[in-house]
């Protein structure tokens, strides 16, 4: 999916850097400036929406769903010692230097504008420029409301990702430092300080609530690559889940189904299951955006413990993974190339609601949702009855893990689950020792370090503890 853009409006200002957008003062090579609401919608799509890129794909290597180590016993080439394996070693083993160099010793993020942090803020600035000026554009009020709602919702998504990359989990320490908040496109010579995690979440919730107020009265539009009403409520339900506001999380999930969200039977849908199924042919999908959150699909294997949790008749096992190299299983769930790859879909609303209802003690409602999803994912599934709260909660979370594996969910979920200890095995080269690296319970590395280049450009951007100290040593 390629988007039409207005060429001048690549925003120069990155947070903590020297300049900001002069949106209405500059002209493009074709002397076009945004005047109509349609112009601003195109500006938002070109400068505010995430393109076919995922800046935070490093978290794919950091959770417990992937195994970079693989010993082939069938004559195929091993992963150990390959450039890809070595290049991603520092993220895979949660090293303090991962934001500055890769496992081959090459510098990364040396240009601060290339960092995940800066890329999210670049798109935030695109949203801010639209929000600052669209009210004065030529167009109907409903059209202006839709553009404003989209900009608010997309900005909220970026801040949600940023605060969950660089701030401690909300349910662990909401007063910890999160990320700076830039909510307008004005020029400022001052360096911006990090706000608390709680303050960032407060802004996210405010943006999403305002977005829903603006957009809910409008007709629901699907399959046009713009965020819509159900997707906004899915995201708000997710945010409330991370905040452990269970009642609000369930209420937002309910709105998704009130607005036409559906759960489809994937066990009998040839049009979806004849290929990758995270696209608009899937009626559960409300919004497609961004790039592949699962890099190197042809190289790394699913963790065996995770793979073993799938029912053999689970359709997601059949169409999310591929057998290669004489029986080796690889995760091939997402699109490749330059296609948009990430989705917001109604199955998340169902699982958000199920988890919230478990926490609220509404076990019957949660069990109904769990059985509903499984019945539509597992061939020949028979409903189960679970009356123990802890067991049902784990079952819902296990289902979430399977439904959204390799979609940049698991790392963030592990953080809110209490930052459990997990481990990765790694072999530097064939014949060398297989080492075990462990991320400890409540490990500081659950919050990512900032690149040094960013710290040098913005002295107010203090480093996280995960970026300090010596290398982790495998055992």
TrEMBL record:
Localization (cell): Cell outer membrane
Domain SusD-like N-terminal, chain residue ranges per copy: 106-241
UniProt xrefs under PROSITE patterns: PROKAR_LIPOPROTEIN
Domain annotation RagB/SusD: ranges: 342-465
Keyword entries, A-Z: Cell outer membrane, Membrane, Signal
A Pfam family recorded for this sequence: SusD_RagB
One Gene Ontology term, aspect cellular component: cell outer membrane
Similarity comment text for this entry: Belongs to the SusD family.
Protein name: SusD family protein
Lineage: Bacteria, Pseudomonadati, Bacteroidota, Chitinophagia, Chitinophagales
């Amino acid at each position: 999916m390629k988007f039409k853009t207005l060429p001048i409006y690549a925003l120069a200002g990155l947070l903590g850097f020297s300049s900001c957008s002069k949106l209405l003062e500059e002209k493009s090579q074709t002397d076009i400036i945004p005047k109509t609401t349609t112009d601003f919608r195109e500006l938002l799509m070109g400068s505010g929406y995430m393109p076919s890129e995922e800046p935070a794909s490093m978290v794919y290597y950091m959770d417990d769903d992937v195994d970079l180590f693989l010993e082939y016993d069938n004559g195929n080439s091993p992963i150990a010692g390959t450039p890809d394996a070595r290049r991603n070693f520092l993220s895979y083993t949660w090293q303090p230097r991962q934001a500055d160099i890769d496992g081959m010793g090459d510098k990364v993020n040396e240009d601060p504008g290339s960092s995940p942090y800066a890329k999210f803020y670049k798109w935030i600035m695109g949203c801010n420029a639209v929000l600052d000026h669209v009210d004065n554009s030529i167009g109907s009020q409903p059209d202006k409301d839709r553009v404003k709602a989209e900009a608010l919702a997309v900005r909220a998504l970026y801040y949600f990702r940023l605060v969950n990359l660089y701030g401690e989990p909300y349910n662990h320490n909401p007063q910890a430092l999160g990320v700076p908040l830039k909510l307008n496109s004005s020029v400022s010579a001052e360096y911006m300080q990090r706000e608390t995690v709680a303050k960032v979440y407060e802004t996210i919730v405010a943006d999403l609530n305002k977005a829903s107020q603006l957009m809910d009265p409008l007709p629901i539009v699907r399959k046009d690559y713009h965020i819509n009403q159900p997707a906004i409520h899915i995201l708000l339900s997710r945010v409330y889940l991370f905040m452990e506001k269970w009642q609000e999380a369930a209420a937002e999930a309910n709105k998704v189904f009130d607005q036409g969200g559906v759960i489809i039977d994937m066990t009998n849908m040839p049009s979806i299951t004849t290929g990758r199924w995270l696209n608009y042919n899937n009626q559960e999908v409300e919004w497609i955006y961004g790039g592949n959150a699962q890099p190197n699909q042809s190289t790394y294997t699913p963790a065996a413990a995770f793979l073993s949790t799938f029912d053999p008749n689970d359709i997601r096992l059949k169409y999310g993974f591929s057998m290669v190299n004489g029986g080796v299983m690889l995760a091939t769930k997402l699109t490749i190339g330059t296609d948009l790859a990430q989705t917001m879909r109604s199955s998340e609303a169902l699982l958000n609601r199920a988890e919230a209802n478990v926490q609220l003690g509404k076990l019957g409602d949660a069990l109904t949702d769990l059985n509903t999803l499984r019945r539509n994912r597992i061939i020949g599934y028979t409903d189960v009855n679970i009356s123990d709260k802890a067991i049902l909660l784990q079952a819902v979370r296990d289902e979430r893990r399977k439904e959204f594996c390799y979609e940049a969910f698991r790392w963030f979920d592990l953080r809110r689950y209490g930052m459990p200890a997990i481990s990765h095995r790694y072999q530097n080269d064939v014949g060398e020792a297989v080492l075990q690296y462990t991320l400890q319970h409540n490990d500081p590395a659950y919050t990512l370090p900032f690149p040094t280049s960013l710290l040098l450009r913005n002295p107010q951007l203090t480093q996280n503890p995960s970026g300090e100290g010596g290398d982790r040593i495998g055992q």
